[in-house]
TrEMBL record:
Keywords: ATP-binding, Kinase, Nucleotide-binding, Transferase. Catalyzes the synthesis of activated sulfate. It comes from Stigmatella aurantiaca (strain DW4/3-1). InterPro entries: APS, APS_kinase_dom, P-loop_NTPase, Sulf_AdTrans/APS_kinase. The keyword Nucleotide-binding applies. Belongs to the APS kinase family. GO terms for molecular function: adenylylsulfate kinase activity; ATP binding; sulfate adenylyltransferase (ATP) activity. This is Adenylyl-sulfate kinase. The keyword Kinase applies. GO terms for biological process: hydrogen sulfide biosynthetic process; sulfate assimilation via adenylyl sulfate reduction; sulfate assimilation, phosphoadenylyl sulfate reduction by phosphoadenylyl-sulfate reductase (thioredoxin). Its EC number is 2.7.1.25. Residues 6-152 form the APS kinase domain. It is an enzyme of class 2 (transferase). CDD domains: APSK.
Length: 236
């Protein structure tokens, strides 16, 4: 038996890609099998954890480190921690991976054009008009992960498809059991032998293994052009 049953499922991707939606879907199913679950949603915890911090690269990095710190505390106490957080910088995500240990990175990808069309919060419209300056993916780059445990293309995959990939990864990594997943999915799922990312979740094993290929930056890494943009605004 592992000494902890906690883990951190870190969902990174641009605003509106579906991180919170997928996290809510997973959280409900984890609770169904008696797991203790906490969701650290960037949009909800900001008032408490980083009020007053702005949108510079340094400040954003501080925010992601703080969320990582809380995730680590919870995960080591057997909590399944879900973190839907834009977390645009690769180096800070990798720092968190090392610190947190039982860490699963989910890259939620979606073409910027689709995000602009979806724009369920109106933030892209504001970013493109320059009303929100320093917007990740519009005026500031988003750095996609090169070797996430899971990649979800939310423009072509449903929430259920994305969740199925996540559950398979949790099984492969030994963070969930096939009994739990039978209850959740109604199917007998098998762990893939020698999961290719298993080494990467241990604190000392963050270097890419032999044969690990870097993926080129995807569409999400591109930065769209706003009509005008001001620098240096504070996050809401
Ligand atoms: N400048 C900038 N660039 C990119 N993304 C940004 C920016 N400001 C806010 N956001 C994202 O919008 C989501 C909610 O932000 P807020 O903290 O302002 O919350 S709220 O609007 O008051 O609910 C949250 O994203 P999601 O977690 O993806 O929903 C924030 O990361
Ligand atoms: N395949 C999908 N996965 C997740 N969300 C999707 C998908 N297709 C459409 N959506 C929609 O996109 C929006 C994503 O919003 P949200 O989950 O808050 O994104 P984020 O947390 O990444 O900012 C929601 O309105 C959701 O219903």
């Amino acid at each position: 038996m592992p000494s902890t049953t906690g883990f951190t499922l870190w969902l990174t991707g641009m605003h509106g890609t579906g991180k919170s939606t997928i996290a809510a879907y997973i959280a409900a199913r984890l609770r169904q099998v008696g797991r203790q679950v906490e969701t650290l949603d960037e949009g909800e915890i900001g008032q408490d954890l980083w009020q007053g911090l702005g949108d510079s690269k340094e400040e954003r990095s501080t925010i992601v480190r703080r969320v990582g710190y809380v995730a680590q505390l919870l995960a080591r106490n057997n909590v399944a921690v879900l973190v839907p957080c834009v977390s645009p910088y690769k180096s800070v995500r990798e720092e968190n991976r090392r610190i947190i240990g039982r860490y699963v990175e989910v890259y939620v990808d979606c073409p910027t054009e689709t995000l602009i069309e979806r724009d369920s919060t109106g933030k892209y419209k504001k970013a493109l008009s320059g009303e929100i300056p320093n917007f990740i993916g519009i005026t500031e780059p988003y750095e996609p992960p090169t070797s996430p445990e899971v990649t979800i293309h939310s423009d072509t995959e449903s929430v259920e498809d994305g969740a199925a990939k996540i559950f398979q990864a949790l099984l492969d990594l030994g963070y969930m059991t096939s009994e739990e997943l039978k209850i959740i999915t109604g199917k007998k799922m098998k762990a893939n032998p020698q999961p290719k990312k298993a080494r990467r979740v241990e604190p000392k094993a963050d270097k890419p293994g032999k044969g690990t290929k870097s993926r080129p930056a995807t569409r999400a890494a591109r930065v769209a052009k706003p009509t005008s943009a001001k620098k240096g605004a504070k996050r809401k």
